[in-house]
Request: fold
Amino acid sequence: MNTVAETRLKRPASLEKNPRLSQWLHVHRDGTVSIYSGKVEIGQGILTALAQIAAEELGIAVERIRMVPADTALSPDEGVTSGSLSIQDSGVALRRACAQARTLLLERATARLGVSGGDLRVEDGSVHAAGRSTSFWECADDALFDRDVEETAALRSPRDYRVVGKPAPRRDLPDKIAGRPRFIQDMALPGMLYGRVVRPPHNFAGLISLDDSKVKSMPGLAAIVRDGGFVGVLAEREDVAISAQRALRLAASWREADPPPRDVHTWLKEHAAEHRVISEKENADARSRATRALEASYTKPFLSHASIGPSCAIAQIDDGKLAVWTHSQGIFNLRRDLALALGMREDAIVVRHAEGAGCYGHNGADDAALDAALLARAARGRPVQVQWMRDDEFAWAPCGPAMALSLRAALDAHGGIVDWEHELWSNGHSSRPGRADDPALLAAWHLARPHKRPSAINMPLPAGAADRNAVPIYDFPSQRVVNHYVREMPVRTSALRSLGAYANVFAIESFMDELAQTAGIDPIAFRLRHLKDPRGRAVIEAAAWRAEWDRWKPAEGRGHGIGFARYKNLGAYCAAVAEVEVGHDVRVERLILAVDVGLVINPDGVINQIEGGAIQSTSWTLKEQVKLGARGIASLGWEDYPILKFSEAPVVEVELIDRPELPAVGAGEAAQGPTAAAIANAVAHALGLRMRDLPLTHERIAAAISQST
Amino acid sequence: MAEHFRLTVNGNESELEASPDTPLLYALRNDLGLKGTRFGCGNGQCGACFVLIDGHPAPACDTPLWSVAGKIITTVEGLSKGRELHPLHNAFLAEQAAQCGYCTSGILISAAALLAKNLRPTEREVREALDRNLCRCGSHNRMVRAVLRAARE
Ligand code: FES
Ligand code: FES
Reply:
């Protein structure tokens, strides 16, 4: 397991980029400590976990920590809050910075008190020796932290942790639960105008005409902004902005491009631009023992992030300087692309994070920021708030890419897998800002002088993107994995929680069950037979134990199934057992998940993330697909894109395996793939029929049943 | 054309000028500064904007101002009495029943309406009462537990 050792030795990228100690924390005279992180709260509870880490290494109460919202003018640049990496990136950096800060503060305190280090008694930032005392708050000054973070300070041993590893209530929840203003949507700056953008149809090819005569005279309208195909309105009242947006939409006529393909999965297979073998192991000897071969194809549709709160941003241009408030996951990257789109210098732009609704990946947050900035140009110094409407969000936020997958394997006479092949076809899984020559911001492509829309790309392995988790974690003697990259995009795609892992794990783990069945072996025993990794085996065994797998009582229409993966093959281990009943629809009754995230920082936080991930994955798996029509995306409201309801949510039980001696990894995406596979396997178990195309809707099941009879 | 409206919100009388078709949502959020009621869909399908109108949960996004004259409106802010939180608020905190929290206000409103007429709901009744509210973060079970806890306490 050399990945563990490597993670420990490597200097975290966050510290490479932001080496000064003063970039990470500031100790105040009033007994509080400001912690600066470049990672942002997106409802995952990261600020709470980071506060726990900082308090632990400083040896002070967590209540003394103030987490400063990320701000390009103040915070370390830590890239994007994504990929379940915040604990690895920011957590590791803060741990080192705070350990060093504590050492420096204690040195000062020792000198002040005129004693030698060993005689100190230190408690929650107060330092006592020989009847005298001082404190961190008295000892700190600006000069003390004006130095590089070094990696020499001793880190507190996990055995002695008092804050980390204990459940900590989320710091942001009291406001959110009491309904106090906390979201960017709730900000009201003095003199603020409300903006809306009149989006074209999805297959936009240009604006032909716009008759704004009726709208112009609406009382309370402040401006109609037009730049090529970008059309927006500004009003004193939000409801007026919305009425103007609706009226202008009816008054505009657009040139439209070709409709998207009807059968996306066939289209993907026909349009692959690059074919990359990402894993290859050849063992002719093993292959020669093959007695049976199996193959199967699986598909996953386009999925929507479908945040409950549509994207929002505020922008203000004052004296040539632009200030932006955004719920973007990457404020520095957004600043770069805003500069590109607006033809401004980056140092004339400040981007500040403000909390938004859960995003689950790259949604419209960054785009809304450019919308607000473009409208702010017409606002004469007044701030402008733009919130997208529901249909804007469904039609224009990037989708999680559709994927097609083909798997083949061969078994020997004893039911062992001797050969494995996995091919996948997909668009890129990231078109986030900050990575291309052109701005990855929607409005920039519709301006009179349009920028080119960058294609979604894939990050390389080992984390991967479309091919995330495509390389099997099992020990097969011979294997070949091929990623067919499709550059051309029928709809805009980008990162959705877990990227390709959701579909790859769904396919691999479905196929493992198909092979187990062919071999006549219990699915759990079959997996364990092919898996050496002890942590992987442990979560599978824990999930099976908690679910009482061996004591399953067969009943008409009921089934159970398992799914397993290690996220990215280097993050959290997760095994899920699903218990379902299939009647008119699939009803997931219970999900049991066993999870190993290494050291657990906030147990309740991890459980909350796993529960949420499992329920969201159940929703994707049973119900969700973005519909395409003649004008592009045709799912424009919740009626066209139903998600799981309260009465449909399964019972979720989580078994946490704490490993304090191993590095902490994120939990936010670990459940997506295993849950989908567990459900599909349970449905196959219940029906005696294999469903290979997501989502597992009533129509699909009815069709599968009628085909089989 | 703007008209003069007098609204009873959380026990207070407030006045504002707006067009009669203005959705109640914007009057609450922008005229009265009650930001706890949130926009999610604008057509009654997600529950983020739910308020109590004469005790019944209703989407403020889909309720024009003209229709609420003389009615009693309660928003999430009005569930608590001054500084004292509603038992539902405390139960949601105790259960850490949210992730992003954007859907929470509307869910509290549906739950409050349920508890007002049914002091001891079953889990099934709670789920049914919340079925018009969407939560994308998957916090459903925690929220159901929180409502049951509030009913117990
Ligand atoms: S915003 Fe009113 S129901 Fe969705
Ligand atoms: S907690 Fe995020 S939508 Fe419900």
About this structure: The first helix of chain A runs from residue 2 to 9.
